[in-house]
Amino acid sequence: MLFGDKILVYRDEILKDLATLLEIESVDGERNEECERALAFIIKRAQDFGLDYKMVTDKSVHVQLGDGGKLCGVLAHVDVVPAGNNWSVIPYALTERDGRLYGRGIADDKGAALLNLYCLRVLKENGVQGKNTLRAIFGSAEETGMRDMQGYFEKMPLPDMAFTPDSDYGICFAEKGILHLRVSTPTNEAKVLSQFHAGKAVNAVPDMAYVMLDSSGYDEQLLMRLADASSGNFEFNYTIDGLMIISRGKAAHACEPEKGKNAAALLIDLITHAYDLHEIGALASFIHYALNCETNGRSLGLKMSDGVSGPLTVNLGVIHIEGHTAEAYFDIRYPVTVSGEKIIAQFRAVAEYNGMQVEVVHHDKPLYLEKDSPLIRELSAAYESVTGEKPTLYTTGGGTYARKLGGRGVAFGPHFAGDPINMHNADESMDKENFFLHAQICLEALYRLYNVE
User: Can you name the residues that pair with 320 across neighbouring β-strands?
Assistant: First the structure.
């Protein structure tokens, strides 16, 4: 019997705790008190299990087992992106249906976070005396720029080896660079467009957008003809304030924007074919010029790829135009062999040529770890011992806590190929058996790191 199998004894208790954790609407920036509740729940259960813990910042906590040797870590986050629309179940609840577990955070990343805590419990309750120190580190601001881990590592040392179960299996040895850029105009001088709103998170493809237009009857007929010829899904409503057009798309993670359908970009494309720049404003015109419903950065002069991590991607995540405000937020994931400063310079050149102001809101440089490192060898052995298969080594456009580990950590699990988890989308879910298969792999990995030389 593998040590990792011992976590299966706790299945029912894990599911009970998972239900409690998923009910907490821990959206950083919107429900900060709920983020505090999620961390408080982790602390409460650590106390129940007799584990040592430390609240390091108001956004981070760690739970520890052992106190010698190497410092080995496992990192996860308890904040989530907003629920969004089009769920078939209650987003903030655990629902089990047809062998799947549903709820916002089950796959990203509350499910894995809870299992990290239970792995330490299993090690303790089975009397394992490791050579090293294990820390399960929990943050509550991963989805909004990872300032939780920035604050944590300002006060705590980097682990010697660590992994974060916040991606796919096998082992992610490289992560693309991530840029979040705010584009705005000094004033909003749109003549026809009075409101445009879309998106709540820059790292998600918006599945809904709407615009308010002070339009004529001729404009409305033209817009409806254009809508019929478009690939978008539009709804026209007449209000006291003018014509409202609602655009509906499909959400997706910004690291794979091509898997979604950007409601904001489609709506921009619609109105720019019916109005001139001065009628809809400079920001909407720039977005149409620079994005053109693309996800590869071609119109920005940023289309590129490398052999390690693949192509650059661009996502229009958020737009707010109303009153004097006109701003949009872009998420760019760029290849690991490319300079982020060059990406910024090219984007800025195109934007400023079109009268835009550009602010770098967030920049995570790429992560790259050698494939034959001791950490990758231990994680590979854990995966193979549980599944009987060697893990693949891959790269991602996703951003995980691994990039905060100074080249000492990787992303490892919890998602298996062929399991449609709908991360950052409606009906986020995991196959129940895969969830517990990850639990076994995670425990086996931590058991090995606890004892690695």
Answer: 197, 327
- Which residues, at least 6 apart from 34, have a Cβ–Cβ distance to it below 8 Å? 24, 25, 26, 27
Is residue 242 within 8 Å of 212, Cβ to Cβ?
A: yes
Contacts (Cβ under 8 Å, ≥6 apart) of 40: none
Span 170-211, pLDDT tens digits: 999 988 999 999 999 988 888 899 999 999 889 999 999 999
Output DSSP code: residue 222.
Answer: H
State the residue for tokens 């995670």.
442
For the segment 268-295, what is each residue's pLDDT rounded down to a tens digit?
A: 999 999 998 889 999 999 999 999 899 9
Distance (Å, rounded) from C-alpha 62 to C-alpha 373? 25
Q: What's phi and psi for 167, nearest 5 deg?
A: -155, -140
- Tell whether omega for the bond before 398 is within 30 degrees of 0, i.e. cis: no
**E strands within 37-117?**
52-57, 60-65, 71-77, 95-97, 100-102
Mean per-residue pLDDT over the chain, rounded: 94
Q: What are the φ and ψ backbone dihedral angles of 417, each rounded to 5 degrees?
A: -55, 140
Neighbours of 154 (CB within 10 A): 9
Which uninterrupted H or E stretch holds 155? helix 147-155
pTM of the model: 0.74
CA–CA gap between residue 141 and residue 27 (Å, rounded):
8
The amino acid present at 199, given as its one-letter code, is G
**The pair of three-digit structure tokens given for residue 62, joined into one six-digit string:** 């760690």
pLDDT in tens, 375-434: 999 999 999 999 999 999 998 887 789 988 988 999 999 999 999 999 888 999 999 999
Give bridge partners of residue 96 from the DSSP assignment: 101
Q: What's the CA gap between 353 and 348, in Å, rounded?
A: 8
Asked if 210 and 198 count as a contact pair (C-beta separation under 8 A), the reply is yes
